[in-house]
Automatic annotation (TrEMBL):
It comes from Variovorax robiniae. Residues 30-244 form the VWFA domain. This is VWA domain-containing protein. CDD domains: vWFA. It comes from the Bacteria. InterPro entries: vWA_TerF_C, VWF_A, vWFA_dom_sf.
Length: 246
């Protein structure tokens, strides 16, 4: 049965949770959610669990993002799988994974590489590859115009995965370069451990990089039915609170 949520009540709860940790003015930032679509996660997509998980994150987008949306990305393995699905909003969050992701995105039921979708998200939020794109001579002949560079947007990216990745060195390189550039981005990795696996790599990058955090979700079906206050308390640790205050 799909989870229903009073989004207004949940956004108010987030405001109160932020006030408890000393944030009295709502941060303004773009929200992104990166969702693993590798084969091992297919059961949770099919039974609606990951839609429920996105539902529980929707109040964060409604609260933080000036456009009241979350940009949703998907990935499995290789650069070809990294994909911007679109926006999750108050109008379309119900059934989002079924309607927009299952068997509709590139790399559906593939393996697992983190780096390419991280790179895509950083491009979308303006932190890498930010030069203007020229239309070219033939493009101009057909009325195409130059694309302006993407604006750099302070962003919180929540990265949801159920498995270990095959591209650890490349992932570390992208996170290291982002930290060195002082990108105004915080990566919060959620490791969904339904199969009982350990997330040693996510633990390590959470410790290694100042703009990267990690939470383990041991039972995602239990997690999505926690109270707003419990979810906010789990996600808002000292490091993320410090970044939100910055």
């Amino acid at each position: 049965m799909a989870l229903t949520l009073n989004l207004q009540k949940s956004t108010t709860s987030l405001t109160l949770s932020l006030q408890k940790v000393g944030i009295h003015k709502m941060p303004v930032l773009d929200m992104g959610v990166v969702l693993d679509v590798s084969g091992s996660f297919s059961d949770e997509h099919a039974d609606g669990t990951t839609t429920d998980l996105l539902t529980r994150l929707a109040p964060w987008g409604l609260s933080f993002d000036p456009d009241k949306k979350i940009d949703v990305f998907t990935f499995s393995n290789s650069a070809a799988s990294a994909h911007l699905v679109g926006s999750l909003t108050e109008a379309n969050y119900q059934g989002y994974v079924r309607n927009n992701i299952i068997e509709k995105v590139p790399g559906w039921c593939g393996a697992t590489d983190y780096s390419y979708v991280l790179e895509l998200a950083l491009k979308e939020f303006g932190w890498v590859d930010g030069a203007a794109k020229k239309a070219g001579m033939f493009g101009r002949m057909f009325g195409k115009k130059d694309e302006p560079p993407k604006q750099k947007k302070r962003s919180l990216i929540i990265f949801i995965t159920d498995g270990d990745n095959n591209d650890k060195d490349r992932t570390r390189k992208i996170l290291r370069e982002s930290e060195a550039r002082k990108d105004e981005v915080y990566f919060l990795f959620l490791g969904v451990a339904n199969g009982g696996g350990a997330f040693h790599f996510l633990n390590s990058i959470g410790d290694e990089f100042g703009n990267t955090g990690y939470r383990e979700i041991a039972d995602v079906r239990k997690f999505v039915r926690m109270s707003d206050e419990e979810i906010n308390a789990l996600l808002l640790d000292d490091e993320l609170v410090g970044w939100l205050k910055g």
